[in-house]
Amino acid sequence: MTQFSVRGLLGALAGAALLTAAATPAVLAQDYNADATIHIGSLYEPQNLDNTAGAGQGINEAFNSNVYEALFQLTDAGSVVPQLADSFAVSDDGLTYTFKLKPGVTFHSGDKLTSADVKSSIERVTAENSKSSRKSSLKTIASVETPDDQTVVIKLSARSISLPYNLSYVWIVDHNAKDITSSEDGTGPYKLGEWRRGSALSLERFDGYWGTKPTNKEVVFSYFTDATAENNALLTGAVDIITSVQSPDSLAQFQNNPAYTVSNGQSTTKLVLAYNDRVAPFDNVKVRKAIARAINNKQLLQSIWGSYGSLIGSFVPPTDPWYEDLTGVDPYDPASAKQLLTEAGFPNGFTITLDTPNYDPHPVVAQFVQSELAKVGITVKINIITPNEWYTKIYQKHDFQVTLQEHVNHRDIVFYGNPDFYWGYNNPEVVKLIADSDKAKTTDEQTADLKKANEIISQDKASDWLYLYPQIVVASAKVSGYPVNGLNSQFFVYGIKKAQ
Amino acid sequence: MQRPRPGAGTLYFARCIAKRQLAFRLNHDPEVIAILAYLARRLVILVLSLFVAAVVLFVLLRLLPGDPANALLGVGATDAQIAAARAQVGSDQPLPAQFVGFLGKLARFDLGESFVSKTPVLPEIGNRLSVTLPLTIGGFLLAISIAVPLGILAGVKANGRLGTTISVVSQLGIAIPVFWLGILLVAIFAVNLRIFPSGGFPLEGWRNFGTALLSLILPVVTVAIVIAASLLRYVRAATLDVLGSDYLRTARALGSGFTEALLRHGVRNGAVPVISILGIDLATSFLGAVVVEKVYALPGLGSMLLLAIGQRDYPDVQGVLFVSTLLVLVIGFAADLIQRLVDPRLRGQVHTS
């Protein structure tokens, strides 16, 4: 009896402890409005709703993990975790991946998720007429088999250690879905509400979601073409969050203001001064190094972004596992730049044309490069072009000497392993290292290969990497739980909480 | 048997006569024929202008460097993917073949579908017009209601302090760039006073009537101020002309009061030159809405056009420019017609012109 009551007391105590533990989130839960509408301002309006048909980065922002899910998710912290894959096994030769799907997952249309949906979704990206920029990264997929409803078997023609990562880009779409350029059928925590082109897109909480219920009821992405209009919307409370601030001058009004939170996250966007390494004088490593040493990147970054952003010294941002600080290779040193030019046979410099995209910050950067290079005797002619022209002239025809471009993706060092890429960097050792890295048996091996490749391209100055953009999210202090890194332009909205 | 009431027969007879007179007038009255002939001639010119505009549009767009297929592709696309995208949008076809296809579709008023968003162009234009038309027409009507009374006042009191003040302020209005005015109004009324939203349009469109209306107020005022400033000068000039005219002096000599003479004779005479300016101003404000839409983040025709040009989305660009050309031509047509209705003397000129 006594014992019982002691046990009862202990039990009550334990129960109370559990209650306290459970009560903490419960108290927090009352702090936010579970049925709130979150308004998000963005500069990246999707042009259609299909991420394989030229929709732009905006569709990843609005839809990845919000409306569509994949077998794996690239988290905001940069790790790859299973999403619709419940478990997976890899054969010893690394050529067969067997995935078990999460049970009880339904699409927004009510259809059940089966292996047939996974197969059709992967084949949509690898298809003949696919315009997905991810097509080549999945080229090792030889076949997709569906032994039963819950099992998918992917056979590869060569080892691919990045398969789970690459699959994080492949939306799982209901194979019965008709037109996904203007409608959707995914498995995510939200379904598409309304979409008004040129203006906004809304997502509504999906009640049949298999996972954790979102902490808000509705999310509206409002799209802006003008950064000032976007900032005004945040100042007037029309939006709660701006996903990626691109106007450094506007930050002052949000900093030191308790009503707003400025988050400085991890970025993957690199500003690159790309030489056409195929043509003289850029086929000469000394010339490439000389130009890199002649430009004061630190001053450039500071004049544009103030205290934000960082220098990288290579194409690999700190979020990639094979990052290494290479800013010490060819640092700013105009005197040695001049000497390298003399050694390369250009004591009096030369004249080059810099093809510059017409939007910020490229024109300003071009002028800075022009004045820096003038100091070492290189005359730069600035040729302003539109992004569309850039794609035809430079990306397709390789008809250029030097150009400026921002590269936004995560893990894109692989571009230096493709000698046909627009910048034409062709170093057989790097090509081999990058090809080998994907066939690696362990991630350590892969990391070692890519680190090595990165060191070589940095020493070779395959391009000049001017700086890494900052990734700045500005939000009203009333909201919390939003992602701050936005890797690959993703912006997960399901954990955003708005105060009562 | 009841005899018909005498009045009924007469009324019936009178009605018949009126009908026949109207029919006769329509068929034989030289004035009506002149107007109809004028209408017909203007319609032919309208259709020809549209055709010429379509050709110019087609050629100019193809002269721009770049390729519409690029909007479908990203960095990382292979040569085969690029070729597939070009085949999809048809930019790999020779220009004459593209032109024939374009004209054929245009003749059926089929504007096609966007290369990038895959949406049919015409419904999308309709959707965008639901913002641009209220913006333009609202701004225009507000401008008239500001400019006409103030312009007349400035003319009548041309030598007084009031007239001078109005003129100076209107000069200022002309000198201000429209986007700057927009930014200024947003800073005052949206960011500081929080009376109006700083921009945007409700997701539900006009179904959310109150919000939609509220979000158009500042843009409409911006458009109105800019048009009113230029319109005011014309109204003032027309008023000065009328004030110095012989007919007004004669009317006053015959015992009419100043206000009565101005309203009865002055307004109608002064309106003629102002109407043609109104036509031009309405067309200008329709086109100027592009800038205002950008400042206020409105999903109108202008933002559709800017994006489409950037992406070389030919069907969208052609569609928007074709529809706006049509609207501008129709506005000019209407202004000419109204001028002739207001001033009978102009109708005679049709024969000679």
What's the arrangement of secondary structure elements?
The complex is a heterodimer of chains A (500) and B (353).
Chain A: H1 2-31, E1 37-42, H2 57-63, E2 72-74, E3 80-82, E4 85-90, E5 96-101, H3 115-126, E6 141-148, E7 151-156, H4 163-167, E8 190-196, E9 200-205, E10 218-223, H5 227-235, E11 241-242, E12 260-265, E13 270-275, H6 285-294, H7 297-305, H8 334-343, E14 351-357, H9 362-374, E15 379-385, H10 387-396, E16 402-407, H11 428-439, H12 443-460, E17 464-468, E18 471-476, E19 479-480, E20 497-498
Parallel strand pairs in A: 1-10, 1-11, 14-15, 14-16
Antiparallel strand pairs in A: 2-3, 4-5, 5-7, 6-7, 8-9, 9-10, 11-18, 12-18, 13-16, 13-17, 19-20
Helix pairs in contact in A: 6-8, 11-12
Chain B: H1 6-28, H2 30-63, H3 79-89, H4 95-107, H5 121-156, H6 161-175, H7 178-192, H8 209-243, H9 246-253, H10 258-295, H11 301-311, H12 314-342, H13 344-352
Helix pairs in contact in B: 2-12, 2-13, 5-6, 5-8, 5-10, 6-8, 7-8, 7-10, 8-10, 9-10, 10-11, 10-12, 11-12, 12-13
Description:
The complex is a heterodimer of chains A (500) and B (353). Chain A has 500 residues and is of the alpha+beta class. Chain A has twelve helices and 20 strands. Chain A has a seven-stranded mixed β-sheet, with helices on one face. In chain A, strands 15-14-16-13-17 form a five-stranded mixed β-sheet. Chain A is globular. Residues 1-29 of chain A have low confidence and may be disordered. Chain B is mostly helical and 353 residues long. Chain B has a domain at 121-346: MetI-like fold (Orthogonal Bundle). Chain B is globular. The chains are: A alpha+beta (500), B mainly alpha (353). At the A-B interface, strand 8, strand 9, strand 10, helix 5 and helix 10 of A face helix 3, helix 5, helix 7 and helix 11 of B.
